[in-house]
Amino acid sequence: xxxxxxxxxxxKTYPESSQSEFHKDGIVxxxxxxNQRARVLFVLAEPNSKxxxxxxxxxxxxxRVFGQVGLGKPVDLNMARWTSVVLDQKQQFFTPSRxxxxxxxxxxxxxxxxxxxxxxxxxxxxxxxxxxxxRVFICREVDLIRPTIIFTCGETASRLFRWVMKNDELxxxxxxxxxxxxxxxxxxVNHPSLRPKDAEAAFExxxxxVKEHVRDT
Length: 217
What we know:
By secondary structure, this protein is of the alpha/beta class. Helix content is 42%, strand content 12%. The protein has nine helices and six strands; from the N terminus they run H-E-H-E-H-H-H-E-H-H-E-H-E-E-H. A six-stranded mixed beta sheet has the order 1-3-2-4-6-5, with helices on both faces.
């Protein structure tokens, strides 16, 4: 099964009135992703595309948004920076252009656990309910991507991803700076939409995590 086939199946599990807000995601550019030294996956909680500045992207395929359109905002600039640490072995903070960020993000996969449009003010309870409801689909999407490095972005995504992937209904698994899922190293990082003044410290944390936990980098 392809990722698109999985996502089509997933979308049909929602009421017809909600399906227009379902965001496809996954490997941004299949050919570019296949040629990288590591298969990097960014896991986020939900897309920010409703009742705010990103309304025009509501229901859009996020592979196109990040790999072809480009936002030129902290969310894609930071993911591009962190990608460069793993795939380009960069260790000095830098500010990519919008075009450079698009090119960098074509090397990776990006997925949200909650696929329906959310807003800039995350409803953690709603995101959690969606993640648990869709846990089988989330695991299937990760299996299709076959990542070797997973960045879980922000406290909510990091907690829920562990909860879902470990089928930990009671949430008793302890939080860690690094854990393994199959052949992937899971590294909790900041949410990439953090304030610009905090971006350098977040970048340095990614550099330290990768140095400590990812071999040959």
